[in-house]
Protein backbone atom coordinates (compact mmCIF):
# COMPACT_ATOMS: atom_id res chain seq x y z
CA UNK A 1 0.00 0.00 0.00
CA UNK A 2 1.15 3.48 -0.74
CA UNK A 3 2.43 5.42 2.29
CA UNK A 4 3.59 2.38 4.26
CA UNK A 5 7.16 1.15 4.38
CA UNK A 6 7.82 -2.60 3.98
CA UNK A 7 8.10 -4.63 7.21
CA UNK A 8 11.53 -5.00 8.79
CA UNK A 9 12.91 -8.51 9.34
CA UNK A 10 14.38 -8.14 12.85
CA UNK A 11 16.11 -11.52 12.68
CA UNK A 12 18.09 -10.41 9.63
CA UNK A 13 18.95 -7.12 11.30
CA UNK A 14 20.21 -8.86 14.46
CA UNK A 15 22.27 -11.31 12.41
CA UNK A 16 23.78 -8.49 10.35
CA UNK A 17 24.58 -6.54 13.54
CA UNK A 18 26.41 -9.52 15.01
CA UNK A 19 28.38 -10.00 11.82
CA UNK A 20 29.32 -6.33 11.78
CA UNK A 21 30.62 -6.54 15.34
CA UNK A 22 34.33 -7.19 15.13
CA UNK A 23 36.27 -8.67 18.02
CA UNK A 24 39.27 -6.63 19.09
CA UNK A 25 41.77 -9.44 19.71
CA UNK A 26 44.34 -6.92 20.90
CA UNK A 27 42.13 -5.96 23.84
CA UNK A 28 40.97 -9.28 25.34
CA UNK A 29 40.36 -9.58 29.10
CA UNK A 30 42.83 -11.15 31.49
CA UNK A 31 41.88 -14.75 32.41
CA UNK A 32 41.59 -16.21 35.89
CA UNK A 33 44.50 -18.05 37.47
CA UNK A 34 45.09 -21.52 36.08
CA UNK A 35 44.53 -23.00 39.52
CA UNK A 36 41.19 -21.16 39.79
CA UNK A 37 39.63 -22.44 36.56
CA UNK A 38 36.88 -24.19 38.55
CA UNK A 39 36.40 -21.60 41.27
CA UNK A 40 32.65 -21.05 40.72
CA UNK A 41 31.94 -24.79 40.83
CA UNK A 42 34.25 -25.23 43.83
CA UNK A 43 32.42 -22.56 45.80
CA UNK A 44 29.08 -24.29 45.24
CA UNK A 45 30.12 -27.95 45.45
CA UNK A 46 32.92 -27.90 48.02
CA UNK A 47 32.05 -25.70 51.01
CA UNK A 48 34.19 -25.89 54.14
CA UNK A 49 32.28 -28.69 55.86
CA UNK A 50 33.12 -29.58 59.45
CA UNK A 51 31.91 -31.84 62.26
CA UNK A 52 31.27 -30.85 65.87
CA UNK A 53 31.43 -27.31 67.27
CA UNK A 54 33.46 -24.48 65.77
CA UNK A 55 34.10 -20.97 67.13
CA UNK A 56 36.01 -18.31 65.19
CA UNK A 57 36.80 -14.84 66.52
CA UNK A 58 38.56 -12.16 64.46
CA UNK A 59 39.81 -8.95 66.04
CA UNK A 60 41.07 -5.99 64.00
CA UNK A 61 43.79 -4.04 65.81
CA UNK A 62 43.92 -1.35 63.13
CA UNK A 63 43.47 -1.09 59.36
CA UNK A 64 46.39 -3.44 58.67
CA UNK A 65 46.78 -5.79 61.64
CA UNK A 66 44.33 -8.41 62.91
CA UNK A 67 44.26 -11.38 65.28
CA UNK A 68 42.19 -14.56 65.02
CA UNK A 69 41.20 -17.30 67.45
CA UNK A 70 39.61 -20.62 66.44
CA UNK A 71 38.30 -23.50 68.52
CA UNK A 72 37.14 -26.78 67.00
CA UNK A 73 35.67 -29.54 69.13
CA UNK A 74 34.53 -32.70 67.39
CA UNK A 75 35.40 -36.26 66.45
CA UNK A 76 38.39 -37.24 64.32
CA UNK A 77 38.52 -40.33 62.15
CA UNK A 78 41.30 -42.82 62.90
CA UNK A 79 42.36 -45.90 60.90
CA UNK A 80 40.43 -49.08 61.68
CA UNK A 81 42.89 -51.89 62.60
CA UNK A 82 40.30 -54.55 61.77
CA UNK A 83 39.09 -55.60 58.30
CA UNK A 84 35.69 -54.10 59.14
CA UNK A 85 34.56 -51.09 57.13
CA UNK A 86 33.23 -49.42 60.28
CA UNK A 87 34.49 -45.87 60.76
CA UNK A 88 36.19 -45.19 64.11
CA UNK A 89 36.08 -41.68 65.56
CA UNK A 90 37.66 -40.28 68.72
CA UNK A 91 36.78 -36.94 70.39
CA UNK A 92 39.33 -34.18 69.90
CA UNK A 93 39.66 -30.45 70.55
CA UNK A 94 42.00 -27.96 68.86
CA UNK A 95 42.80 -24.28 69.29
CA UNK A 96 44.37 -22.10 66.57
CA UNK A 97 45.89 -18.67 67.06
CA UNK A 98 46.51 -16.47 64.05
CA UNK A 99 47.88 -13.05 63.21
CA UNK A 100 47.94 -11.15 59.96
CA UNK A 101 49.19 -8.03 58.24
CA UNK A 102 47.35 -6.81 55.13
CA UNK A 103 48.57 -4.01 52.89
CA UNK A 104 47.61 -3.17 49.29
CA UNK A 105 50.85 -4.78 48.04
CA UNK A 106 51.71 -7.18 50.85
CA UNK A 107 49.97 -9.62 53.13
CA UNK A 108 51.41 -11.89 55.82
CA UNK A 109 49.24 -14.44 57.61
CA UNK A 110 50.31 -17.03 60.17
CA UNK A 111 48.49 -19.60 62.29
CA UNK A 112 49.72 -21.95 64.99
CA UNK A 113 47.79 -24.82 66.58
CA UNK A 114 47.97 -26.59 69.92
CA UNK A 115 49.31 -29.61 68.00
CA UNK A 116 52.43 -27.62 67.14
CA UNK A 117 51.64 -26.94 63.49
CA UNK A 118 52.63 -23.57 62.07
CA UNK A 119 51.04 -22.43 58.81
CA UNK A 120 52.31 -19.26 57.16
CA UNK A 121 51.31 -17.50 53.94
CA UNK A 122 52.74 -14.42 52.27
CA UNK A 123 52.19 -12.49 49.06
CA UNK A 124 54.15 -9.53 47.76
CA UNK A 125 53.18 -7.54 44.63
CA UNK A 126 56.47 -6.34 43.15
CA UNK A 127 54.60 -4.50 40.38
CA UNK A 128 51.02 -4.35 39.14
CA UNK A 129 51.70 -7.43 37.00
CA UNK A 130 54.36 -9.36 38.91
CA UNK A 131 53.86 -11.00 42.32
CA UNK A 132 55.46 -13.63 44.54
CA UNK A 133 53.57 -15.95 46.91
CA UNK A 134 54.93 -18.34 49.53
CA UNK A 135 53.25 -20.97 51.72
CA UNK A 136 54.87 -22.99 54.49
CA UNK A 137 53.71 -25.69 56.90
CA UNK A 138 56.03 -26.53 59.77
CA UNK A 139 55.41 -29.48 62.09
CA UNK A 140 57.37 -31.93 64.21
CA UNK A 141 55.82 -34.87 62.35
CA UNK A 142 58.28 -36.65 60.10
CA UNK A 143 58.06 -35.72 56.38
CA UNK A 144 54.99 -33.51 57.00
CA UNK A 145 56.61 -30.06 56.73
CA UNK A 146 56.05 -28.35 53.40
CA UNK A 147 57.18 -25.28 51.54
CA UNK A 148 55.79 -23.76 48.34
CA UNK A 149 56.87 -20.74 46.27
CA UNK A 150 54.79 -19.30 43.40
CA UNK A 151 55.91 -16.62 40.94
CA UNK A 152 52.96 -15.10 39.09
CA UNK A 153 53.04 -12.82 36.06
CA UNK A 154 49.86 -11.22 34.68
CA UNK A 155 49.75 -9.86 31.15
CA UNK A 156 46.95 -7.99 29.40
CA UNK A 157 45.21 -11.18 28.20
CA UNK A 158 47.28 -14.01 29.72
CA UNK A 159 48.74 -15.26 33.00
CA UNK A 160 51.66 -17.55 33.76
CA UNK A 161 53.02 -19.13 36.92
CA UNK A 162 56.18 -20.90 38.06
CA UNK A 163 55.85 -23.07 41.18
CA UNK A 164 58.62 -24.54 43.33
CA UNK A 165 58.11 -26.86 46.28
CA UNK A 166 60.04 -29.06 48.65
CA UNK A 167 60.69 -32.70 47.71
CA UNK A 168 61.73 -31.48 44.25
CA UNK A 169 58.33 -30.29 43.08
CA UNK A 170 58.44 -28.07 40.00
CA UNK A 171 55.49 -26.83 37.95
CA UNK A 172 54.65 -24.18 35.37
CA UNK A 173 51.37 -23.15 33.78
CA UNK A 174 50.08 -20.69 31.20
CA UNK A 175 46.56 -19.55 30.31
CA UNK A 176 45.35 -17.01 27.74
CA UNK A 177 42.11 -15.60 26.43
CA UNK A 178 41.77 -16.48 22.74
CA UNK A 179 38.31 -14.92 22.37
CA UNK A 180 36.31 -12.64 24.70
CA UNK A 181 34.70 -15.71 26.29
CA UNK A 182 37.16 -18.59 25.75
CA UNK A 183 40.52 -19.10 27.43
CA UNK A 184 42.94 -21.98 26.86
CA UNK A 185 45.90 -23.09 28.93
CA UNK A 186 48.35 -25.81 29.79
CA UNK A 187 50.69 -26.95 32.53
CA UNK A 188 53.73 -29.14 33.08
CA UNK A 189 55.00 -30.56 36.37
CA UNK A 190 57.70 -32.75 37.87
CA UNK A 191 57.38 -34.57 41.21
CA UNK A 192 60.89 -35.52 42.22
CA UNK A 193 60.01 -37.67 45.21
CA UNK A 194 57.64 -39.84 43.14
CA UNK A 195 59.86 -39.59 40.03
CA UNK A 196 56.80 -38.62 38.03
CA UNK A 197 56.20 -35.95 35.42
CA UNK A 198 53.14 -34.89 33.49
CA UNK A 199 51.39 -32.30 31.40
CA UNK A 200 47.85 -30.98 31.44
CA UNK A 201 45.52 -28.95 29.26
CA UNK A 202 42.56 -26.76 30.22
CA UNK A 203 39.77 -24.70 28.70
CA UNK A 204 37.29 -22.26 30.21
CA UNK A 205 34.26 -20.67 28.57
CA UNK A 206 32.33 -17.97 30.42
CA UNK A 207 29.45 -15.62 29.79
CA UNK A 208 27.30 -13.49 32.07
CA UNK A 209 25.15 -16.52 32.91
CA UNK A 210 27.33 -19.61 32.49
CA UNK A 211 30.83 -20.89 33.20
CA UNK A 212 32.10 -24.16 31.71
CA UNK A 213 35.59 -25.51 32.23
CA UNK A 214 37.50 -28.69 31.59
CA UNK A 215 40.91 -30.08 32.45
CA UNK A 216 42.76 -33.22 31.39
CA UNK A 217 46.18 -34.43 32.51
CA UNK A 218 48.58 -37.13 31.41
CA UNK A 219 48.09 -38.73 34.83
CA UNK A 220 44.75 -39.98 33.53
CA UNK A 221 42.43 -37.55 35.33
CA UNK A 222 39.79 -35.54 33.49
CA UNK A 223 37.63 -32.91 35.21
CA UNK A 224 34.65 -31.02 33.76
CA UNK A 225 32.55 -28.34 35.47
CA UNK A 226 29.49 -26.34 34.54
CA UNK A 227 27.83 -23.49 36.47
CA UNK A 228 24.62 -21.76 35.44
CA UNK A 229 23.63 -18.49 37.07
CA UNK A 230 19.84 -18.44 37.22
CA UNK A 231 19.73 -15.04 38.92
CA UNK A 232 21.87 -12.79 41.07
CA UNK A 233 21.01 -14.98 44.06
CA UNK A 234 20.81 -18.52 42.69
CA UNK A 235 23.32 -20.68 40.82
CA UNK A 236 23.41 -24.36 39.93
CA UNK A 237 26.64 -26.29 39.47
CA UNK A 238 27.75 -29.74 38.36
CA UNK A 239 31.05 -31.52 37.93
CA UNK A 240 32.34 -34.77 36.45
CA UNK A 241 35.63 -36.42 37.44
CA UNK A 242 37.04 -39.43 35.60
CA UNK A 243 40.25 -41.33 36.39
CA UNK A 244 41.31 -43.35 33.38
CA UNK A 245 43.84 -45.45 35.30
CA UNK A 246 41.58 -46.56 38.15
CA UNK A 247 38.33 -46.27 36.13
CA UNK A 248 36.79 -44.24 38.97
CA UNK A 249 33.97 -41.89 38.02
CA UNK A 250 32.33 -39.28 40.26
CA UNK A 251 29.61 -36.83 39.30
CA UNK A 252 27.89 -34.29 41.51
CA UNK A 253 25.28 -31.55 41.28
CA UNK A 254 24.73 -28.68 43.67
CA UNK A 255 23.35 -25.21 44.23
CA UNK A 256 24.40 -21.89 45.74
CA UNK A 257 21.63 -19.65 47.10
CA UNK A 258 22.45 -16.19 48.46
CA UNK A 259 19.83 -14.11 50.25
CA UNK A 260 20.09 -10.80 52.07
CA UNK A 261 21.36 -12.35 55.32
CA UNK A 262 22.26 -15.95 54.50
CA UNK A 263 23.99 -18.27 52.06
CA UNK A 264 22.98 -21.89 51.51
CA UNK A 265 25.04 -24.40 49.52
CA UNK A 266 24.36 -28.07 48.96
CA UNK A 267 25.28 -31.00 46.76
CA UNK A 268 24.65 -34.67 46.06
CA UNK A 269 27.11 -36.96 44.25
CA UNK A 270 27.16 -40.36 42.60
CA UNK A 271 28.88 -41.93 45.64
CA UNK A 272 25.76 -41.43 47.72
CA UNK A 273 27.05 -38.39 49.63
CA UNK A 274 24.64 -35.54 50.39
CA UNK A 275 25.90 -32.33 51.98
CA UNK A 276 24.59 -28.88 52.92
CA UNK A 277 26.23 -25.79 54.39
CA UNK A 278 24.39 -22.74 55.78
CA UNK A 279 25.82 -19.35 56.74
CA UNK A 280 23.39 -17.01 58.51
CA UNK A 281 24.36 -13.40 59.19
CA UNK A 282 23.01 -12.21 62.54
CA UNK A 283 22.45 -8.49 63.25
CA UNK A 284 24.81 -8.41 66.26
CA UNK A 285 28.11 -8.99 64.44
CA UNK A 286 27.83 -12.79 64.46
CA UNK A 287 27.60 -15.40 61.72
CA UNK A 288 25.88 -18.71 62.48
CA UNK A 289 27.07 -21.86 60.65
CA UNK A 290 25.38 -25.20 60.06
CA UNK A 291 27.16 -28.07 58.32
CA UNK A 292 25.78 -31.51 57.49
CA UNK A 293 27.06 -34.43 55.42
CA UNK A 294 25.58 -37.91 54.99
CA UNK A 295 27.44 -40.76 53.29
CA UNK A 296 24.78 -43.39 52.64
CA UNK A 297 27.25 -46.01 51.36
CA UNK A 298 29.70 -45.82 54.29
CA UNK A 299 26.92 -44.98 56.77
CA UNK A 300 28.92 -41.99 57.96
CA UNK A 301 26.95 -39.03 59.32
CA UNK A 302 28.53 -35.68 60.13
CA UNK A 303 26.87 -32.64 61.67
CA UNK A 304 28.40 -29.40 62.89
CA UNK A 305 27.41 -25.95 64.03
CA UNK A 306 29.54 -22.91 64.65
CA UNK A 307 29.73 -19.20 65.32
CA UNK A 308 31.92 -16.56 63.68
CA UNK A 309 32.42 -13.34 65.65
CA UNK A 310 34.04 -10.23 64.25
TrEMBL record:
GO cellular component terms attached to this protein's record: mitochondrial outer membrane; pore complex
Residues annotated as transmembrane: none
This protein's UniProt keywords: Acetylation, Ion transport, Membrane, Mitochondrion, Mitochondrion outer membrane, Porin, Protein transport, Transmembrane, Transmembrane beta strand, Transport
One Gene Ontology MF term: protein transmembrane transporter activity
Secretion signal span: none
Family: Belongs to the Tom40 family.
PANTHER family given in the database record: MITOCHONDRIAL IMPORT RECEPTOR SUBUNIT TOM40 (PTHR10802)
Protein name in the entry: Eukaryotic porin/Tom40
Origin species: Arabidopsis suecica
Amino acid sequence: MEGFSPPINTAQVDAKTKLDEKVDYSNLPCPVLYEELNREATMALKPELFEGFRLDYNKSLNQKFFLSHSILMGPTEVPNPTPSSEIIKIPTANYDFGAGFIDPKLYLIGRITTEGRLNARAKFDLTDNFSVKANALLTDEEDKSQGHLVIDYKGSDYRTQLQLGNNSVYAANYIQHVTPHLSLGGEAFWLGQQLMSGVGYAARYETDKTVASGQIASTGVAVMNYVHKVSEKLSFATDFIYNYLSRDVTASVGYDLITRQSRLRGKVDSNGVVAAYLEEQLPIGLRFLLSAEVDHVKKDYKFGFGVNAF
